[in-house]
Amino acid sequence: MSLSDLAGEPDPLTVVDDALAPAFATADVDELRSSVHGPVYAAGEDGLAGEVVSWNLATQHTPAIAVGATCGADVAAAVSWAAAHGLRVAVQATGHGPVPAGADSMLITTRRMQGVRIDPERRIARVEAGVTWKQLLQTAAEFGLAGPSGSSSGVGVVGYTLGGGLGPLGRQHGFAADLVTAVEIVTADGRLRRVCAGSEPELFWAVRGAKSSLGVVTALEMELVPVADLYAGGIFFSGADAGPVLHAFRSWAPTLPEEVSTSIAIIRIPDLEFVPDLLRGQTALHLRYTYSGTDLAEGERLVAPMRAAGEILLDLIGRIRSTDMDSIHMDPVDPLATWEKGLLLSDVTEETVEALLAAAGPQVHLPLVIVELRLMGGQLARQPEVPNAVPGRGAAFAMLVIGPGAPELAQVVPAAAKGVLGAMQPWKAPEALLNFLGRVSGPQEVAAAYPLSTVERLRALKAAVDPAGIFSFGHAL
């Protein structure tokens, strides 16, 4: 039994048994090579495996063709060739998301597309599809600005943003998609379009929140925010105080102003040499805290109730630069195999906490590294001035479970996750965050993340711009 049973999907850790890759005439592949600046690899050729490798090592791509795009024109040529040869199209920048591309596909890798340009007066950044948040944050910091990155700066800006994008600045500034002002996208007809509120507004609405459904985004423009310093970081509490700490968090978090974003995770810390002795091999509670207001002393005052909630093993909250936001969640930096799944909660009550402790508390032996509750609300609950398709705005909290993606745990990890997420079903919200869906069974599971009116609108647009369903991998309708 696995979490996949909740949606009738195949086991999320099982490598898909694709048919043999279609064969193409050498002349056809040579034609593709002559039309793009980057490398092209066909199935079976040396170099393909290195081209398509993902940061998440549990994701195994087996495309018929891989194209290493260097610019928007490369992407347009690749999509046109794929459409002419009956291939579906997938795209990857860093490969943090578990979205495998199968043998009937072309995988376009965008990591060579590294352009970043900032207009400091307008506070607008233009970012190409291969740029990571680390690159954007470092460049923006030169002007006293920051972007709405997630928990890890190693993630690509574009893919994260198209799925909504929720990070430490979210409650004050909204989803990353809310700050997008223009998108450059190659649609199924091979056209490279620049869309914004005044140009193709329906496509602009949809692509901000529809992730991979409508085309390959080659660049986007987004607003930056005037943030240089934060009062932020994490506190590790003893697992023995899991009950008091989680109940304190439940009462405290909803009282916070929008300048505060926070989450708390039950984290099972490995017994490894690089882990501090105080934490090694323990199950602890990790409070993640960000105050993005201007009065840093107020940020310290606001977190004080949690500092009194339980035994503190390590307190790492303090003044940090915007370029140091990785220190808040302390996500892994090096590639590894992971499996994840999330849902949204309408409320977290005393009963919710007790159910969570019973399913995932320190006394339970679980193969899950992280079980996280993240506060929603604030600007995340509001549509931006130019509305978009991002779902989940009505939720009170987001929940995410992460486990190792090793093949030998292919049944164990999903089964454990099912137990934890199943315990939260009484409080489950009707929508979901696309970036927290993990490996999905297909378009029906993706559609369930949105309200019905949004799904109908997205499907109508997809039928118009992608009638053959070229873009149908991963989190696509």
TrEMBL record:
Coiled-coil boundaries: none
Q: Which residues form the FAD-binding PCMH-type domain?
A: 59-227
What are the names of the required cofactors? FAD
- A GO term, aspect molecular function: oxidoreductase activity
Keyword Transferase (UniProt): no
Q: Which SUPFAM superfamilies match?
A: FAD-binding/transporter-associated domain-like
Is Flavoprotein there in the keyword field?
yes
> Which family, according to the similarity comment?
Belongs to the oxygen-dependent FAD-linked oxidoreductase family.
Name the chain's protein: FAD/FMN-containing dehydrogenase
